């Protein structure tokens, strides 16, 4: 059959067995501003009872966006939402009120600090779901965690939604957690305190993914978004642990041209980085890449040519944000970093990573989520991802803290399974996972590294502390830890108030 | 029910009504090199009869990858493939042999030059499907065009698949067409002649999307990949047309701070850019952005501060590639540029665009695909996309070429519907689409712009040429043009040999 289409052409409706819809209308693209109020944006999104809203945590303890948005939602009378933030901080204590008033009844994401403390004692209708950075990315991508409305804080955005976290008074580093929300949420709302001319000069998320742009006076308090100046530890015990990490890498022959390593922004990690910096310089070695969190220490190593590449990802200080903006370094996202469902992550083949823990057990299982009193106070972060990616995963811990043994028979919560933990680097020596015979062989006869058994570390801890205190937990499950592929790794029980 | 998982935890299988799979195994990520031979990569992809393979065209007439890959496929005896390249060039004449020997039986994508000529006379089993840049992106994204195996040429790649077109002996500009193939094809093969240390210093496509990396001696001939040095026309007729485009923009008040414009790499466009450059400088105006193809002329305007931003997209000369690599300008992709199925394109709200045509009719319909003898010799490119995005879409054409009227009663093929074409800028004056009363009102009484009717231009053309020659086409349909949303715009009939 022939049909005359709107361009006036009489054309068959089927050609070589394929049916075609006739052309109906050409029109100019809509290029209206997407700027509306938050209330209007939420209304237009059709957000309703039972749905899921997401946020990123890159404004950290300076964030004003989560609290403000929840207030607007509460005022609109929408109840029983699932909160799917990448992390909450102490500033988000008002979330507790939103739990009490019924605005929020489920949480999937990290709950650092007071909300964690509250939820530990007051279970939600479903347990808090904790995923690693990569695990969350995969869950949103693969629709295990469907986001109805994503609210994405940006330190600069234009009126069509191109946006960044790299410039402006509330700069927090490249937006790197929310691209997956932008790609998969039904409605995407960018919230900024810095509306700039189109096109925005940096664009970690572009207008193709954005429905609405909302202007706020301030998206956060710059003093609490990033550290003004990160400090290396000067605690001799921690410096000793840091030193041993580099000695271990050295003994294993890992400090050579092409090294790819990760160290975070904690005191021990930063100290280790400084030792590494000196070692690279002394040995005239050039590392290939630093991954994970970005700090002025990495920027400085890059500037000096000690490391060829560094990915702009989560930034922990003002200097590192400026460095990325000025040098326009490689900017990437958490999917590239850690998505377990992709065809490859930049963590794959990491030569060494330095991670922390609240507890480690004699099976090398690591806990970073709960304190030894059972309270859920931290998220998983990139812990599982980095451990799975690295040839040498080092956990830096003291053998005990005050009266609590860190090394113990069993961790309160399993965050990262012992199978992928390679070395526990403590103030009393280094325990190598017996499964890593390759490492043990290489370390045979090496001086400079004090290899001890995990059991001996545990015994020291128990001797000094009298062992773990008795934990009297309730039967209700307040949280779960998932492995990167979504499998159930452990549960977190209620703490009796 | 409780299950003991592989981490030794006895956990319920259902919590708050949700069932969980127990944790089975943690393992280190695989970080093996992905480098294999092309033959092996294709074998592992499981490519088989009837499937679809895709390529980008950014190596243009210097490309060695398409021909080589088709040879390997032919040698493997795989038949009846659908070729879904973004464009073919004269260098791809061997594709004709692969049509004849049955390796290829369908094509979706531009066929510039000899393959177009051949297919015009020798219909394939289905017509060639022509889509705009944005239309193709949407078709792959939305699975209208499913790609089984994407073969992506890169001028540098590391052994895990991070890759770029910005550096190396065969640099062709940022890879910008293939991200959608990388995201949606079942198997993704990166082909490079420049295997670099991981991580590759630029990464338009990252390892998360890549299955295999293949090394070739040369992916192309640099002399034909990009122009060594683009030349502005010195033809007085063309210079006059270029000048009129800028005069028209000026008369419409478009040349002011914040201007967003597009001009391609054709002779008239380049001349218009140079006039624009002078006009901006003279009037002390700063444009906000240049979109579309990138050339040394844009780089120079950016360097001089005459345009604040320019997106790194398709590059047409060596200088522009170097400029993007050195300054690390905003790099983006065709989805952001033009995807009609996204929430916004950077073409939206373009103040003005300058486009070419083979023919224009009195309804302002434009043909860029076929010559007036009916042969399908060109793709759609960004023509539809840019016309739909721009407030002022200008088509620059002479009234006639040799003995052929360019302005005519009806175009041979409709590429872009007249509804979104605003001005036909010719050597004999400018015809404004009567639907654009707003433009006509603004131009009332303006000197410097010679406004004429489209009919009068057509009459001039017919007077000089005697009108269009009779076209004696066959009944077989050799190609179709699609509107950006996939609707059937027009068909292209067989040319009798």
Looking at CATH, which topology of the largest domain in chain A would you report? Answer: Glutaconate Coenzyme A-transferase
Please report the distance between the alpha carbons of the first and last residues of chain A: 75 Å
Q: Count of DSSP helices of chain A?
A: 15
Report the major sheet of chain A: 8 strands, mixed
Q: Spans of chain A of 5+ residues with little confidence (pLDDT < 50)?
A: none
* Derived structural class of chain A: alpha/beta
Number of domains of chain A: 2
Give the oligomeric state. homodimer
Nearest-integer average pLDDT of chain A: 96
Helix content of chain A: 25-40%
Of all chain pairs, the largest interface belongs to: A-B, 87 and 87 residues
The CATH level-2 architecture of the largest domain in chain A is identified as 3-Layer(aba) Sandwich
Structure description:
Two copies of one chain form a homodimer. Chain A is of the alpha/beta class and 497 residues long. Chain A folds into two domains: 38-108 and 145-225, 3-Layer(aba) Sandwich (Glutaconate Coenzyme A-transferase), CATH 3.40.1080; 236-471, 3-Layer(aba) Sandwich (Glutaconate Coenzyme A-transferase), CATH 3.40.1080.10. Helix content of chain A is 27%, strand content 23%. Chain A has 15 helices and 30 strands. In chain A, the strands form nine sheets. Chain A has an eight-stranded mixed sheet with strand order 18-17-16-19-22-26-27-28, sandwiched between helices. Chain A has a six-stranded parallel sheet with strand order 8-6-5-11-14-15. In chain A, strands 10-29-30 form a three-stranded mixed sheet, with helices on one face. Chain A starts with a strand and ends with a strand. Chains A and B meet through α13 and β30 of A and α13 and β30 of B.
């Amino acid at each position: 059959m022939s049909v005359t289409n709107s361009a006036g052409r009489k054309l068959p409706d089927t050609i070589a067995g394929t049916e075609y819809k006739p052309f109906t209308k050409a029109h100019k693209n809509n290029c209206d501003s997407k700027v509306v109020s938050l209330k209007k944006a939420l209304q237009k999104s059709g957000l309703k009872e039972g749905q899921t809203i997401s946020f990123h945590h890159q404004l950290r303890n300076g964030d004003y966006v989560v609290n403000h948005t929840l207030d607007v939602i509460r005022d609109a009378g929408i109840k029983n939402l699932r909160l799917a933030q990448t992390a909450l901080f102490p500033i988000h204590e008002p979330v507790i009120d939103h739990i009490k008033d019924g605005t929020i009844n489920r949480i999937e994401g990290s709950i650092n600090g007071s909300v964690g403390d509250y939820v530990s004692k007051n279970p939600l209708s479903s347990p808090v779901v904790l995923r690693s950075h990569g695990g969350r990315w995969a869950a949103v991508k693969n629709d295990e965690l469907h986001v109805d409305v994503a609210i994405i804080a940006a330190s600069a955005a234009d009126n069509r939604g191109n946006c960044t976290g790299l410039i402006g008074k509330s700069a927090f580093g490249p937006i790197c957690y929310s691209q997956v929300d932008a790609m998969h949420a039904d409605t995407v709302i960018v919230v900024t305190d810095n509306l700039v001319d189109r096109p925005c000069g940096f664009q970690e998320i572009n207008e193709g993914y954005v429905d609405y742009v909302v202007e706020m006076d301030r998206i956060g308090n710059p003093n609490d978004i990033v550290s003004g100046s990160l400090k290396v530890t000067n605690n001799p015990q921690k410096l000793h642990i840091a030193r041993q990490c580099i000695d271990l890498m050295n003994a294993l022959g890992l400090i050579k041209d092409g090294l790819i390593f990760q160290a975070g922004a904690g005191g021990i990690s930063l100290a280790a980085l400084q030792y590494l910096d000196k070692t690279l310089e002394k040995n005239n070695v050039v590392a290939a890449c630093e991954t994970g969190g970005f700090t002025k220490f990495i920027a400085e190593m890059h500037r000096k040519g000690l490391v060829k590449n560094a990915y702009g990802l989560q930034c922990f200080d003002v200097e590192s944000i400026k460095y990325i903006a000025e040098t326009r370094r490689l900017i990437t996202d958490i999917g590239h970093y850690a998505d377990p469902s992709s065809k490859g992550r930049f963590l794959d083949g990491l030569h060494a990573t330095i991670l922390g823990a609240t507890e480690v057990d004699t099976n090398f299982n690591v806990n970073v989520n709960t304190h030894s009193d059972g309270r859920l106070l931290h998220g998983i972060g990139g812990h599982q991802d980095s451990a799975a990616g690295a040839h040498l995963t080092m956990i830096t811990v003291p053998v005990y803290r005050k009266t609590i043994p860190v090394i113990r028979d069993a961790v309160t919560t399993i965050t990262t399974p012992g199978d992928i933990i390679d070395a526990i680097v403590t103030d009393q020596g280094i325990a190598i996972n017996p499964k890593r015979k390759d490492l043990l062989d290489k370390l045979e006869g090496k001086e400079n590294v004090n290899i001890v058994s995990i059991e001996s570390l545990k015994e020291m801890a128990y001797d000094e502390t009298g062992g773990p205190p008795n934990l009297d937990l309730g039967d209700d499950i307040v949280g779960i830890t998932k492995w990167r592929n979504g499998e159930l790794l452990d549960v977190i029980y209620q703490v009796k108030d």
